Records
---
Amino acid sequence: MIKLENISFSYGDIEAISNISLSLPAGIFGLLGPNGAGKTTLMKLLLGFLVPASGRGEIMGQALAEKQKSLRRGIGYMPESDCLIPGMDAVALTAYLGELSGMPRQEAMKRAHDVLYYVGLEESRYRQVETYSAGMKQRLKLAQALVHDPKLLLLDEPTSGMDPAGRKEMLELIRDIAKKESMNIIISSHLLPDIESTCRQVVIMNKGRIVAEESIAGLKKDNFNIYEIKVVGEHAPFFAKLRSLHCGVEEKDQTLFHILLPGDVAPAALFRAAHKTGVQIRHFRQSRTSLEDAFMDVINEANGH
Ligand SMILES: Nc1ncnc2c1ncn2[C@@H]1O[C@H](COP(=O)(O)OP(=O)(O)O)[C@@H](O)[C@H]1O
Ligand SMILES: [Mg+2]
């Protein structure tokens, strides 16, 4: 689907993409990286909005930044920034953007209603877009990316600015698209849970480079949940009991411990073990997940720490 060889791009003196090579087959991929990693720039290069300073690449069988018109028909793009035109209502805007992607007017209008319904904006579809909330704007941005039924969907920070409930719904929509349609999808995010909940494969970027390309399963091969606890009482039998349940125990200081619970062991097991061995848990808090640790490790390694 995508093949990049030694692609670089700079904004003036700032090298945003630094000699990237990448080969992605059909499928659903997460593009994960902190702010400024180069995710948006990479998407713009794929779209042909920006032209690489060096290197070459192919997207869906065509050279980068060539045959833009025919390529546009096959790509749906949900940008990170605002792409909505004030003064238009959602139906008119979505249909218009469908036409720009090469659809006949009537078909674009019909599809506009369908996709707005799909993203949950049917009741507000005749409202002017500038009256939309941040969450509604994100939904509309997704709708316009879907209107022409693209083969490849590029979603740039799709949950940006959304409240927790809206975020959850957006991620559900993306999962639904991934399940139902035979679309290839690239989702960029600086939020690990967004990628974890939608993709099986992840490409991690940092400072304009690709620092890891892995399956999510590979990234969290040690699938533990980590809990921070303090215990009062004789802890040796308690920890022995936990180890027999395949939990890891790490001493942080004299009183504070990290318990690594395998993904399939519920935290209640910790309390049962404490009860049985006669210790009291005085402090209990979920710590970072091991996947977050893995992500941070990759970034830190890339930064030379
Ligand atoms: N229009 C621009 N002009 C100058 N620098 C830019 C511009 N857009 C992005 N950058 C810089 O390029 C780098 C990559 O940015 P970006 O692709 O937006 O990263 P991400 O999407 O991962 O946050 C950053 O250092 C950013 O400051
Ligand atoms: Mg970005």
---
Amino acid sequence: MTHRLISIQRLTKQWVNRLLVAFALLTGLLLTGCAGDKSILDPAGQAARDIAIVWWVMLGFSTVVLGMVTLFWLYTFKRKEVTRTPDEERRIARRWIVGGGIILPVASIIALLIFGVPTGQRMLTLPLSDPPEVIEVIGHQWWWEVRYPGAEGGEVVTANQLIMPAGEPVDFHVTGADVIHSFWVPRLGGKIDMVPGHVNKIRLEADVPAIFGAQCAEFCGTQHAQMHLYVEAVERDEYEAWLAARQTDELSSLAVNDQQHEFAREAFMSHCASCHRVAGLSTGGEGPALSDLGSRASLGAGVIAMEEGAVSTWLKQHQALKPGNKMPPHYDIDPATLESLGAWLETLTP
Ligand code: HEC
Ligand SMILES: [Cu+2]
């Protein structure tokens, strides 16, 4: 009898060990998901660092609570049966409800508030003696409009890419054009809702020049997942040069004085200008501004990489690449015209 008990014990021990190994492997695998250009655990600015600390504190605290509850639970199997009067039973029950059901959660929430409130405070756009750069970001189904109202010589407009100065605070003024979206650059800080008819503000800072991923963080329709934003922080002088090259005058000479692509430009004016802005040619705002399209990292808010021929691929297949997107299919335009349109748009790079 004892012999058999011992072998059962050994068997269970083996299984427990196997489970532990499987658990460790799985955890390791899951942790690989914590890296990458959209990871909150790889902060690249003060606001994001504060949030990461709050995250680790919450993880630690909830692990302790889970451990304690598990120990209590295991203890109930071990402890000897005791007989109590109904009065005693009631008193013990009340102690658990008051202690575990009221005091513990209230204390935990207060502790988290003490950690969390200063973190949120840092992202408020409070007045500074040296007013920060302002960048406006507008969420559309399913792309990003980015405006630089402070640019010398008139506002600069681009789309699906956000270039910002590194090493200084930047105020983002965000809103939505159609439904609620959410602006989120995980490595720089918290997310903020983009609500139609209302401007929300958040202050973020990138420590050093780098490229970050950003993503719409509020479900906004079928292509919500395909609403990526390329964010790049660059040195101050590089930022100013980038802006200067996108001044309307600079860009219009690029678009207008190009003799080689006259045919494409005419096709653009009759088929595309109502929705797309090309500085000097059109002001359409229903779709992304295309004035500097050639210098983008991707097309369709991250759907395909920008490379030679990518624009005409987009023009011919965009409804297959990003089903339901708000650009109508162009069956009425012959493929040769679409190709020349694509070739011309790719040259639009300051
Ligand atoms: C009814 C408005 C509308 C018309 C007309 C239109 N587009 Fe678009 N276009 C859009 C919208 C909206 C998007 C964004 C789609 C998305 O990513 O969800 C877009 C995206 C694009 C993109 C990708 C831009 C980027 O930043 O990734 C290109 C290039 C483009 N359109 C070119 C054209 C050309 C060329 C024409 C004319 C043949 C045209 N469009 C006609 C609305 C329009
Ligand atoms: Cu969304």
---
Amino acid sequence: MRGDYALFFGLWLQKPLQIAAVTPSSKRLAQVMAELVDFDRPGPVLELGAGTGSLTRGLLQAGCPRHRLIALEREPSLAAALQRSFPGIATIVGDATALDEHFAELGIDRLCAVVSSLPIKWFSVAAQRAIVEPCLALLGPGGVFLQMTNAFASPIAVEPLGIAGERIAHVWRNLPPAQVWAYSKPADANAREKQ
Ligand SMILES: C[S@@+](CC[C@H](N)C(=O)[O-])C[C@H]1O[C@@H](n2cnc3c(N)ncnc32)[C@H](O)[C@@H]1O
């Protein structure tokens, strides 16, 4: 665990905009996000920007079976640390903006939930779309894309993306305090797809 902090902080010094946090997320934030996942929904749980695995650990402790967890991380040294710490989960070393390709390669056609700690508020609208749209398509009705952020406003551009978003949790015990947002397709879009 102490090694995780050192690895994370060292990478933050080199790539502050990509790592976007000085320390990994707190246990409390991990617990809050995991409690928002309905593991009874079918499909794998996708974690985006898994880092050293703080949220991964929370998902496993909340009862997510290892074989249902897919952790995506762009930084190879962090992905290697994840694989060492959490054998049995699927780790994708790659960019979240190429999710369509990753889904096709791995044959993923459905998702239970998405848990993201990507620094997504810094991404362009096009990059946000490339991440959120394929996820919402595989989540289906009732599925949520959970995003943590340190900002008070929505970190995802809901209007340009034509999606619904609401802040559903506030976690003081995190450095800095965090908000959790849930994004979904608007209800009328789901109704149109069923017709
Ligand atoms: C704020 S850290 C969160 C790390 C960890 N999940 C936690 O909560 O402690 C953001 C993580 O997202 C990763 N990341 C940033 N941009 C990414 C991208 N485009 N694709 C995949 N991972 C990315 C970073 O390398 C970093 O590990």
